[in-house]
Amino acid sequence: MSAPGFVPTRQLVLVDLLALILGTRPGQRAVVAVDGPDGVGKTHLAQELVALAGHVAGRAVQTVSVDGFHHPRAHRYARGRTGQTCYQDSYDYEALRARVLRPFRAGRDIVPAAFDVAADVPVDPAPVALPEDALLLVEGVFLRRPELRGEWDATCLVTAPAPVSVPRGNARFPASRVAGDEDPAHPANERYVEAQRLYRLQARTWPPEWIVDNTDLQRPELVWPDPDEPQWFEQ
Known about the structure:
The protein is about 35% helix and about 15% strand. By secondary structure, the protein is α/β, with parallel strands linked by helices. The chain has a domain at about 10-65 and about 130-235: 3-Layer(aba) Sandwich (Rossmann fold). The strands form 2 sheets. Strands 2-5-1-6-7-8 form a 6-stranded mixed beta sheet. Strands 3-4 form a two-stranded antiparallel sheet. Helix 1 (about 10-20) crosses helix 2 (about 40-55) and helix 4 crosses helix 7. The radius of gyration is 18 Å and the shape is globular. It starts with 8 loop residues before the first helix and ends in a 12-residue tail after the last strand.
């Protein structure tokens, strides 16, 4: 039981992070990418920021997941199931631009998804109207890849070592788990781990504005990119 007036460490970190993010293009629409590997906690963190903004911010904050912009299964696996194809063929960035990024920049409504990856079918959700100074959080993997330069006004990297993020990610899909898959080196994780390795090689020249070490979910740490500490970009 928390003592009266006690504010958990996670909430304090989220308040600080939200204050920094809200400073992006004040008075105008802005897009911030929330980047990080599978299982690190990006989706939950973005949702927490949206919920918190409703209480402390004078600016609307909306979140969209890049997971709503997968290619169909046939496209994703057409060239095999390797780390390279996972990195190169998973997402339809043109659909993300057409439904979210371009309309948002133009002051129009956004359509927050184009594809249901679990059902492997296109979707057409209702448009979402946002104020003229809204802040849009786009969360997902591979968001600092070269072809997305220019799409974000700022980026936040959510990080944790693979021995932490891989088991977390696999725990979301209990029906498809296999014995031993909590180990990042397990064959079941090979394509995802390799995809992240390929991605990190390309993302090293694009440091994020903010980094959240989400290893301990109760006590995350807000840190900044430091060229003398490259380990943040190796996780």
